[in-house]
Amino acid sequence: MSSESARRIAAKARRIVVKIGSAVLTDNGNVRPRVFSDIARQVCALREEGREIVVVSSGAIAVGSAELGWDQPGRSIPEKQAAAAVGQISLVDAYRRRFARFDQQVAQVLLTRVGLEDREQFLNARHTLHKLLELGVVPIVNENDTVATDEIRFGDNDNLSATVVNLVAADLLVILTDVDGLYTEPPRKGQPTPELIELVEKITPEIERAAQGSSNAFGRGGMATKLEAAKAAIRCGALTVFCNGRKRDALLRVARGDAFGTLFLTGSRLASRKHWLAFTTRTRGELVIDDGAARALRNRGKSLLAAGITDVRGRFAIGDPVSCVDGRGQELARGLVAYDAGEVRRIVGIPAREILQVLGYSNGDEVIHRDDLVLVQESSE
């Protein structure tokens, strides 16, 4: 597909998730109030066209740090959480006041990864967001930094924005950052700016290398986390664009099909539940599988049987998500197990018909049923 054709598809997107990074909202830790007005103006212009918009906004820690008089975002997790608690009020109030100028209501939605790993909470968040959109309200989503820790962060809201794409079934994800898009190699200070990649048809190892780089002090992510978000969003069937949110009308230009930023084409679409399993849950352990089982998962869409398992790593309970890895340690799939770790260790390598005899009961022939299993590599499907 040509870049022009892809841009035309982006221009038809009816439901858009826009992620605004700290690097757009702040400048060396100083909040840029005008950005809030520009975002409100652009979102409301798209709303007038009948589009539905969800805003995923970073900035609570940066705003709170500024209000506390700090020149950095806190040196410890408690300091960052305190800054977030102070800043979240001002952050949402800034959006509320700017959107009010256009008679547009907004709502605050705070999420955490550990919360969304619970399927019921995930569905509750989905229902809330859909109802807000139905009511004509613009949700302002942020990670709940007052309770999140580095171990459970989404990563500067980049990966959270991709999860929101799944929650609301968006057509387009726009990530506003402080660079023009993805370059052929990471820009280096004092060196000529590398060539901008306008269209990414498939995320290859070369694209992943181009995304390596560092983030600024007030942003927790970087281009690498944005690429992770793109991988997740395109598996939802959403086009994804990285672009410079500091340039005028950045969101409008993307939503109207201009050649602006880097556009990622969609891949094969995962069902929402399998997307949640692949990109939102954290695995509790690993099942090492033999070559035959790997081929059965990759090429034939089969369930995972005990006979194909060679080793069990970690501690997990029935229904927990686990990784399926090959003998080289490469993750092939993720799934929800029908047996706990101790039970799987007892049935490793045995035929399904012997499970009842070994355990004294059976939860079925499959350690992971194919309905509860998802391949993590698109190329394998």
Essential attributes:
alpha/beta; Carbamate kinase; Archaeosine Trna-guanine Transglycosylase, Chain: A, domain 4; five-stranded mixed β-sheet; 15 helices
Describe this structure in words.
The protein is α/β, with parallel strands linked by helices. It has helices at residues 3-11, 22-25, 33-48, 60-67, 77-100, 113-116, 119-134, 158-168, 205-210, 223-234, 250-255, 272-279, 291-300, 341-347, 355-359; strands at 15-20, 26-27, 30-31, 52-57, 106-111, 138-143, 172-177, 199-200, 239-244, 262-264, 285-289, 304-305, 309-314, 321-325, 331-336, 366-368, 373-375. α3 (33-48) crosses α5, α4 (60-67) crosses α5 and α8 packs parallel to α10 (223-234). It is globular, with a radius of gyration of 22 Å.
Write the layout of secondary structure elements.
Layout: H1 3-11, E1 15-20, H2 22-25, E2 26-27, E3 30-31, H3 33-48, E4 52-57, H4 60-67, H5 77-100, E5 106-111, H6 113-116, H7 119-134, E6 138-143, H8 158-168, E7 172-177, E8 199-200, H9 205-210, H10 223-234, E9 239-244, H11 250-255, E10 262-264, H12 272-279, E11 285-289, H13 291-300, E12 304-305, E13 309-314, E14 321-325, E15 331-336, H14 341-347, H15 355-359, E16 366-368, E17 373-375
Helix pairs in contact: 3-5, 4-5, 8-10
